[in-house]
Design goal:
The protein has about 400 residues and is an alpha/beta fold. Helix content is about 35%, strand content about 15%. The chain has 10 helices and 14 strands. Strands 2-8-7-6-5-3-4 form a 7-stranded mixed sheet, sandwiched between helices. A 3-stranded antiparallel sheet has the order 12-14-13, with helices on one face. A two-stranded antiparallel sheet has the order 1-11. Helix 5 runs parallel beside helix 6 and helix 8 crosses helix 10.
């Protein structure tokens, strides 16, 4: 596959013209798009976004602007947001991440990458000359955040399971000791390709030679899974994280991407903002989507704590089943304990395209989020077995 895929061409039929369009025709087009995506849903196995949800009954929310301006706890002059619902979401997620809500500052962001940027900006304010240490398996948004914040990024080797190598982290820190004040460790809970979880207890200990250490955890894909795994890996505030980001749509399932930023409250300045908004604001975005908070709240309320735990358990069971079926198909699958990610030999392009598999080098993976069924795994395994027979012939 090319590193630079062909660009999406402009569809002349979607052009916005001088005169108003035919509204009925446009609505029909959008409904057709929704139907097509719904029909394609069972084939999307390679990317961590749960497509098994239904929130159509909340359509009246689309008739209002819900603008959360500034901090979730702060009143603002516009007062057209949905902050009480945002606070309820943050309280739930904070407890899942091993902390008391009163000990954390958080907000619902536009994406988990924005939340990661907020966490690293907090770390930079705290340790302005410290490098960022991230593994070679970290999501590319870590590098992008370091570029935006003008932070030095040091790449640390990973172990065979995809987790950061604490011994190499210690070596990298020792090589730079004296040149910088402290270390910022960007750990990952649920690495992009293998779903591995970095042990932040070991990593903090390995970085201690640098002086003060800030540990940020990119838990976009794996945090909600780790929170419901027994025994829990060392990934959360309970294990020493200083800041953390989680995706709001990957496991839960939402019609829009969203993320959650959480930081130890004492690490942030007391007040930012201005008279115009009338709000205290320590977010990156200022104006934020109240609709995202409402959708998150509705989805989490519909699941409840027990439903969320059951969802993760069912997804883990499908992942274990996928290992069995892909082993039978000769695809040599691998899976980190508790993860929803199953890595296997990269198949021919037609299989990867049919099942929307994520591929890197000689490997492909599937992620058993909520819409991924055993039946879909069986069909993928059958395709992989057919490929093996063709090669043998």
């Amino acid at each position: 596959m090319s590193a630079h895929p062909a660009p999406i061409p402009l569809d002349a039929g979607l052009s916005i013209e001088d005169l108003p369009s035919d509204a009925a025709a446009d609505v029909g087009r959008l409904h057709g798009l929704a139907r097509a995506m719904h029909d394609e849903r069972p084939l999307v196995l390679g990317f961590p976004g749960n497509l098994d949800f239904s929130l159509e009954e909340l359509a009246p929310l689309l008739g209002m602007l819900f603008n959360n301006v500034g901090d979730p706890q702060s009143r603002d002059a516009s007062d057209i947001g949905a902050k009480p619902y945002e606070l309820a979401v943050l309280e739930y997620v904070a407890r899942l991440c091993g902390a008391l809500p009163s000990d954390l500052y958080g907000y619902v962001a536009s994406s988990s990458s924005e939340a990661l940027l907020h966490g690293l900006a907090t770390a930079r304010r705290r340790l302005p000359t410290a490098p960022v240490y991230a593994s070679d398996q970290a999501h590319y948004s870590v590098g992008r955040a370091c570029e935006l914040l003008r932070m030095e990024l040091v790449t640390v080797a990973s172990l065979p399971d995809g987790s950061m190598d604490a011994k190499d982290l210690r070596l990298q820190v020792l090589l730079r000791r004296g040149a910088a004040d402290g270390a910022i460790v960007a750990a990952t809970c649920g690495t992009t390709m293998r779903g591995a979880v970095d042990d932040i207890v070991l990593l903090r200990r390995a970085a201690a030679a640098a002086g003060p250490v800030h540990v940020h955890v990119d838990a976009a894909a794996g945090g909600l899974v780790a929170a419901h795994t027994s025994p829990q890996p060392h990934w959360s505030f309970a294990h020493g994280a200083d800041s953390l980001n989680i995706s709001g749509h990957k496991i839960i399932g939402l019609p829009v991407p969203t993320g959650i930023s959480l930081t130890r409250r004492e690490l942030l300045p007391e007040t930012l903002g201005g008279e115009y908004t009338g709000a205290v604001d320590r977010t990156l975005a200022c104006s934020r989507s109240g609709l995202a908070s409402l959708l998150l709240w509705a989805r989490l309320r519909s699941l409840g704590r027990s439903g969320m735990a059951a969802l993760v358990m069912r997804c883990q069971e499908v992942a274990a089943y996928a290992v069995e079926r892909l082993e039978e198909a000769g695809a040599r699958p691998q899976r980190v304990d508790g993860s929803l990610t199953v890595v296997f030999d990269r198949p021919p392009a037609w299989v990867a395209e049919k099942w929307h598999l994520a591929c890197a080098g000689s490997l492909a993976h599937l992620v058993t989020v909520g819409h991924v069924t055993r039946a879909a795994v069986d069909e993928l395994a059958a395709d992989l077995a057919d490929v093996r027979l063709e090669v043998a012939a």
